[in-house]
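Contributing new records

If you add data, match the layout below exactly. Sequence lines come first and carry their own label; structure lines follow with theirs. Keep one chain per record. Anything else will be rejected by the validation script.
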Amino acid sequence: MSTAPVDQRPSLLLVDDDSTLRERLARAFRERGWDVTTAGNHEEAMVAARRESPEYAVVDLRMPGQSGLELVRDLLAVDASTRIIVLTGYGSISTTVDAIRLGAVNYLPKPADADDILAAFARAEEAPNVAAPETLQAPSLARAEWEHIHRVLADSAGNISEAARKLGIHRRSLQRKLQKYPPSR
């Protein structure tokens, strides 16, 4: 356990609707000397951030009600210096781009532990690597379809019926596709 004074410990807001994951991560960060506040949704997170703005935040992408992307935007409106990482079990290139565009410093797939999150914060502090890879591997057709579906769903604010209409497929077909894991590259 850290003996650093409370006012010198880094502050972290941990937001996830999965209480087991949230409390496991909170305990791990507290054991590393962090001052941790937890929230289960957008509203609770905003109340906590307005009460005392955190230096760091870890935000789940998919939560009931408002999404993690909306929370990234709103947390940065409270304090633009908050360093935010988005966690998700449903990652895609489009949501990663959206998270970074909104101001998140990094994006991690679940499951992630405290060490993964700390490493992601550290990578965000490093200078970006601007060297382009020598070969670009195009995603598979299945992966491109999966990413497109999730992009349309995000653009439809999570409304499956609306996304199905935009994609020109039946709602049940879309629901079946959404239950599948993302195809590998």
